[in-house]
Amino acid sequence: MEGVILSSACDITTGDSDQTVAMGSETRGHMRRTGQGEPHPFSISLTGCALAQADDPAPWQVLQVTFDGEREDGLFRVGGMASGVALELTDSRGAVIRPGEAVSYRQAAADDIRLDYYLTLKTTTRELMAGDYRAVIRYRVDYF
How many whole angstroms separate alpha carbon 129 and alpha carbon 46? Predict the structure, then answer.
């Protein structure tokens, strides 16, 4: 008998296969005046991680998250009846994350990691029109 013990990747815990962020309602007047809605927080929880310490020769020490979706003016495009708006994604420090942009996360050693983000409705160059909207933003976690 032979075998190998491997470091496993993290498990993503969302409670469901889809993670929904309810953005609520914004008025057209508020969007015109300020150019943005209220930020809405969400988190990605990674559990059972085996990130290695810097002096440990584990297979990976860093992870990165890439968010992807349709683009508009450097933001995430929305669909529906609303027009002239898109979603801005920021991390917990306020750094803007663009569609397709990989964001690295370094942690010396952690079994559970919580990545915090915010979605904010922003006006775009198109004409602002009232209506419902929705977007699908996919994310991928890569380990190095």
Answer: 38
Gap between the Cα atoms of 9 and 13, Å rounded: 13
d(CA 138, CA 63): 16
Would you list the domain boundaries of the chain?
A: 11-49+61-143
Here the tokens at position 82 are: 């609303």
Which tokens sit at 107?
Answer: 């942690």
Nearest to 115 by CA among 47, 22, 21, 23: 47
CATH for the stretch 11-49+61-143: 2.60.40.1090
| pTM over the 0.85 mark | no
User: pLDDT digit string (tens) for 7-41?
Assistant: 566 788 766 567 889 999 999 999 999 999 999 99
